[in-house]
Structures are given as structure tokens and as C-alpha cells.
């Protein structure tokens, strides 16, 4: 779950990383916090998609959105942003 404390800690570590750098322990903590944050966002998206219903204008029938699993792409963006 994404809380204000989680966001505050993520932002603190991000600012510290830019200004003075992080210790190995802080880097590990930052990675874990990012994973928690991203899993929360993914959960919100899945819940939103699960609540979508399509309505056919001609027949007025409702169809639930069918979720399909896609293979997640692994892209390394470090060369782009650093």
C-alpha cells in the first residue's frame, strides 16, 4: 500500500542520492521501497482494469474486460538517464 510515509522516504532517498550519494544499505532500502511502490501502482491498474465493462450500443449487453497476461519487458534505462 502506498502511504505518505513511503513516498516521503522514497523522495528523501532520491534527493540524498542526487546530492551526496547513498550507502549500500540505503541503496538496498531504496530498491525495496521502489518495488513496494511499483507493486502498489500495478495493483491499482489491475483493479481498474477489472472494473471495466464494455457496453455494446446495439444490444445493450455488458461484457467484462478480459485480462490477458503479457510478458513483462525488462528494459535498462540507466544509460538514458545517467
Give your account of this protein's structure.
The structure is a single chain. With 82 residues, the chain is mainly alpha-helical. It has a two-stranded antiparallel sheet. It has helices at residues 4-19, 24-50, 78-81; strands spanning 53-55, 62-64. The mean pLDDT is 81. The two termini are 29 Å apart. The radius of gyration is 19 Å and the shape is rod-shaped. It contains three helices and two strands. The chain has one domain (4-81). 57% of the residues lie in helices and 7% in strands.
Main sheet makeup:
2 strands, antiparallel
Pairing-aware structural class of the strands and helices?
mainly alpha
Report the average pLDDT across residues. 81
Using only CA atoms, what is the Rg? 19 Å
Widest sheet: strand ordering: 1-2
- Give helix % range: 55-70%
Number of domains: 1
Entry keywords:
two-stranded antiparallel ribbon, 57% helix, 82 residues, single chain, mainly alpha
Short account of what is shown:
57% of the residues lie in helices and 7% in strands.
Helix and strand layout, with pairings?
Elements: H1 4-19, H2 24-50, E1 53-55, E2 62-64, H3 78-81
Antiparallel strand pairs: 1-2
Helix pairs in contact: 1-2
